[in-house]
Specification:
Blueprint: H1 42-62, E1 73-76, E2 82-84, E3 87-100, E4 106-118, E5 135-138, E6 145-146, E7 150-153, E8 170-178, E9 187-199, E10 207-224, E11 228-229
Parallel strand pairs: 1-10, 3-10, 3-11
Antiparallel strand pairs: 2-3, 3-4, 4-8, 5-6, 5-9, 7-8, 9-10
């Protein structure tokens, strides 16, 4: 008869009596697998954090939190000349106009009317990009919060793309869109954030103008214009 079966199931010819030292440890992964795959880029992480903070600020304002934080929003009367970063602004009123587009879509076009200029030495345009721009508006009745559709520098028929250094105040408007729930009241709330110069992202050493931690709040008188129907 043969000797005792010491290998149990057929091992396919492998030597069960020893361990190949080249084998990896059975309880973990080696090389790049040990880190859980590809890492998330740092810029994406910090951009996500910034977006969350911006949305948090908007949410706090939507629920009236800033009304209890006088250090965040400084309320000023219409017509006040104020400075924010490399800009000087003065806003006097808002116009409200009901629009019907070619496709039948209806909305309210709200224009914050004022003046502006740059106090710096370079041509520059105020930022109005979503979630990072320096302007925002709120209707206290419907609680709608709106970010600008665009800005207009100069007269409507001769608008320009940037403020030119060395010039006095020129017409400047910030244009918003509200849905059809909006109904013009005596005033509308408008905020201009203070902008500061410096590093904006933790992962980058690049310096630029960006929103600071407080802003200027105005309750502008609203003037209703005749409706526009493009159909």
């Amino acid at each position: 008869m043969g000797g005792a079966d010491s290998g149990g199931a057929d091992s396919g010819g492998a030597d069960s009596g020893g361990v190949d030292p080249a084998w990896p440890p059975p309880s973990g992964r080696s090389g790049s697998d040990a880190t859980g795959g590809k890492s998330i880029p740092a810029w994406l992480v910090y951009s996500s954090i910034l977006l969350v903070l911006v949305l948090l600020v908007a949410a706090v304002w939507a629920f009236g939190g800033f009304e209890r934080r006088t250090d965040i929003l400084k309320t000023m009367p219409p017509g006040t000349l104020f400075t924010t970063g490399p800009y000087e602004f003065r806003f006097t009123e808002a116009t409200a106009q009901h629009w019907t587009d070619y496709d039948g879509a209806v909305y309210w076009k709200i224009v914050m009317v004022g003046e502006g200029r740059t106090t710096g030495k370079e041509s520059i345009r105020p930022s109005y990009m979503p979630n990072s721009g320096m302007f925002i508006s709120k209707d206290d009745v419907t609680q709608q919060i709106s970010q600008p559709e665009l800005t207009r520098i100069g007269e409507e028929a001769f608008s320009r793309s940037h403020f030119t250094p060395g010039l006095p105040l020129i017409p400047f408007s910030v244009i918003f869109k509200y849905d059809d729930r909006y109904r013009p009241g005596p005033t509308i709330r408008f905020v201009v954030w203070d902008v500061v110069y410096g590093k904006h992202f933790i992962a980058s050493d690049e310096e630029s103008w960006h929103n600071g931690n407080h802003g200027y709040q105005l309750y502008l008188p609203a003037r209703v214009l005749p409706p526009v129907d493009l159909r």
